[in-house]
Amino acid sequence: MSLNFYEMLGVSKTASSDEIKKAYRKLAKKYHPDRNDSAEASEHFKRVSEAYEVLSDPKKRSEYDNPPRSPFGNMGFGPGFEDIFSEFFGQQQRRPNRPPPPQKGPNRGIEIIIDLKDSVLGTTKQVKVQRMSKCSSCNGTGDTKATTYRTCNACHGTGSVTFRQGMMTMQTTCNTCNGKGKIKVNPCRNCSGTGIKQEAVNVKVAIPDGINDGMRLRVAEKGDWGPAGYGDLIALVRIRPDDRYRRSGDDIHSQVKLLPSECLGGCEITVETLRGDKTVTVPPCTAPGTIIRLSGLGARNLKTNTKGCHKIEIFLDMPTSLTRAQMESIESLQKSGL
Ligand SMILES: [Zn+2]
Ligand SMILES: [Zn+2]
Questions:
Q1: Among 44, 50, 205, 289, which is most exposed with the fewest C-beta within 10 angstroms?
Q2: pTM above the 0.70 mark?
């Protein structure tokens, strides 16, 4: 194995420039061709001079200490080591000349709050979405006719830069040019060369009947712009609580207050359901707390496509006082054993 430059000069790796100069002068004198005829001495002189040329120049010495490219080659690792390395370090080692395939833009999420009635009957909501759209001036290219490219100074066009972290030399994507190795000159002014521009768009979201709180609807291509097209808009649907109705699964619940005589003798009532008014016959002797089911008037189940019930719960509308006539009637009821 051949000696490294420090070993050739007989100095340590941390030697100062003075120490290096002294060591070189001593060796140069010893092996100088004027003083020696042997081929061996001449060869030695050449190699010592070569070492001094590098180590006496701070820039060259630094490059020698930290080789910018493929630092592992010098350490005796065989080919393929970088591939193993890249598996451990993922993107940091991605080769700039092998970019990932173009991708659609990201999906964008919004929340839509609807009334309970709309969740049962379905509706269409018009929403305004702030999204990253394709720039209309340059059609998403970020370029104009005047656009040219120059080589990135930060990475000298390689798209990646190396830096030291402790003992390791790491390679990472160049921030200045985002790994492209080149910088745009005279980019599209509307989008500063990015090809994308924030824009408010109106989106119609069709909300199917039967949708339940917490469900998500996907509206294709209403998300953000990316090189391979628009991402989707994902609408999270929330249902506003309602004063009169409560939803439980596919069933809708409401309450009806009946007078004591209506509970006792039965009656006909009009029930307001979310699917319209419905006449319901309450049979005699209906106790408070009774639940009357009106089938097919609840919410549609999106999986089975069947409809739930509208359930009415009977409450007693108890008077706070009675007239004399009412009292007399009740007395006669009591006499009859009721
Ligand atoms: Zn543009
Ligand atoms: Zn760069």
A1: 289
A2: no
CA 190 to each of CA 134, 135, 162, 209, 224: distance values in angstroms, whole numbers, following the listed order:
11, 7, 34, 42, 17
Residue 44 host element (H or E): helix 39-55
**Stated length of the chain:** 338
Q: Which of 211, 258, 257 is nearest to 236 (CA)?
A: 211
**Which candidate, 209, 191, 198, 201, places its Cα nearest to that of 233?**
201
CB 54 within 8 A of CB 61: yes
Whether the Cβ atoms of residue 160 and residue 96 lie closer than 8 Å to each other:
yes
Given a cut of 50, the residues of the chain with pLDDT beneath it are 1, 70-93
C-alpha 88 to ligand 2 mean position (Å): 24
Q: What is the pLDDT of residues 70-116, one digit of tens each?
A: 444 334 344 444 444 444 444 444 555 666 788 999 999 999 999 99
Vertex 271 angle, CA 269 and 273, to 5°:
170
Amino acid at 315: F
Cα 300–chain centre separation: 33
Give the ligand with the smallest distance to the CA of 96.
Answer: 2
In sequence order, what DSSP letters do the residues of 260-302 get, joined into one string? HHHHHH-EEEEEEETTEEEEEEEPSSPPTT-EEEEEEEEEEPT
| Separation between Cα atoms, residue 27 and residue 45, nearest integer Å | 8
Q: Which two tokens stand for residue 89?
A: 């370090």
Q: Distance from the CA of 172 to the center of ligand 2, in angstroms?
A: 10
Quote the CA–CA distance of 53 and 47 in Å, as a whole number.
10
Tokens standing for residue 68: 């910018």
Task: Give 223 Cα–ligand 1 centroid separation in angstroms.
Answer: 18
Rounded Cα distance, 260 and 73, in Å: 96
- Closest of 3, 257, 214, 244 to residue 117, by C-alpha: 244
C-alpha–C-alpha distance, residues 197 and 220, integer Å: 19
